[in-house]
Amino acid sequence: MRAAIVGSTGYGGVELIRLLEAHPNVTVTSVVSSSSAGSYYSETFPHLTEIVAGVMDDVDPALIRGKADVVFLATPHGVSAQLAPRFLEAGLKVIDLSGDFRLKDPAAYEAWYKKGAADQAYLDRAVFGMCELFGDEVAGADFVSNPGCFPTATTLGLYPAVKAGWIDPNSIIIDSKTGVSGAGRGLNLSSHFSEVNENLKAYKVNQHQHTPEIEMVLSRAAGRPVTTTFTTHLVPMTRGIMSTMYAAVTDRDRTTGDFLQLYREFYQDRRFIRIRQAGTYPATKEVYGSNYCDIGLNVDARTGRITIISVIDNLVKGAAGQAIQNLNLMMGWDETLGLGFAPVYP
Ligand SMILES: NC(=O)C1=CN([C@@H]2O[C@H](COP(=O)(O)OP(=O)(O)OC[C@H]3O[C@@H](n4cnc5c(N)ncnc54)[C@H](OP(=O)(O)O)[C@@H]3O)[C@@H](O)[C@H]2O)C=CC1
Ligand SMILES: CC(=O)N[C@@H](CCC(=O)OP(=O)(O)O)C(=O)O
After folding, report:
1. What pLDDT does 237 receive?
2. CA angle 317–74–271, rounded 5-degree value
3. What is the pTM of this model?
4. Does the keyword Nuclease apply (predicted)?
5. Residue from 102, 103, 178 whose mutation best tests the ligand 2 pocket (most atoms within 8 A of CB)
6. Topology of 2-125 in CATH?
7. What is the ipTM of this complex?
8. DSSP 8-state assignment for residue 70
9. Which fold has domain 150-314?
């Protein structure tokens, strides 16, 4: 299959190119740039010298349709809303990494993203591709909206317990930390070295655009509307997300062992979800550069609350890796194709 990457000079785009190099069924035939068309990709990314040859293409759906069958949009919010319909109408399959097609209610999108929403017909057409939860819906789709990085770590960590009714969904508090690459490659004040180094900072408190996406998934698990408190923190590392989640257990007789068994059964045969042994908790470095989501948990009988810890690499399971997993599901291939590599450690 031939693939094009739009937004190829960004972090999500360059990670897609790295991962697709190892995919047995996909060849990247077009790297696309709105700002550097005509120049060599390896000039922007010298680490890909002799790996990605050739110059970048302009954002031209008709030209790209001649070179590719699927396009990944690793473009900012607002840009994808404009580009996805053009690529779909040109006859390409589209996998969008932005938040533009995840929420199906345009009013909710506009309230949280502070931008105009995409056309309702395309919002309805885009399948929300949270692979381990709703992967069945992705099979055969031509347009997939890839989930956000925080919603991936967070909802994979909460879904089995909410679905089973073992925690009170409206008691959930989510405390998330992210590395700086989550903010993209563009320069901005809050992500430059001296602002981030030796610093720990909460941001977008009660205003983060991933809140409604997390609530959308949890509401589906609970079968009723769920609201949650979600706080993000920037930490001085490049990659990685850790979501630490707290909730009230509904039956105080249920133990850590009971929850671990529930999670193991829920995710059995799901290669990219690893449930830790009792008493051990995942660290971001243990999934670095990989498509894994690792989950550990503990029930505190004293308080009747559970603590759930979930980690991912924001650029792999939180972006490019899950996007490729979605392509595998769209095409009816084994979902692990091209993604079976171990984390980089240390
Ligand atoms: N970084 C992360 O961890 C994650 C990112 N995402 C989402 O993925 C998307 C990409 O993120 P990321 O790679 O970090 O962002 P970057 O800022 O690193 O890259 C975005 C790229 O989009 C391209 N672009 C900008 N404007 C336009 C335009 N008008 N038309 C076409 N291309 C444009 C630019 O490339 P050029 O100038 O070459 O066209 C730019 O390099 C975003 O929507 C982001 O929210 C999702 C999950 C995790
Ligand atoms: C550090 C940092 O700023 N991270 C970004 C991650 C969001 C992102 O990447 O956007 P998506 O909605 O497409 O997932 C943020 O918190 O907004």
Report:
1. 97
2. 20
3. 0.98
4. no
5. 178
6. Rossmann fold (3.40.50)
7. 0.98
8. E
9. Dihydrodipicolinate Reductase; domain 2 (3.30.360)
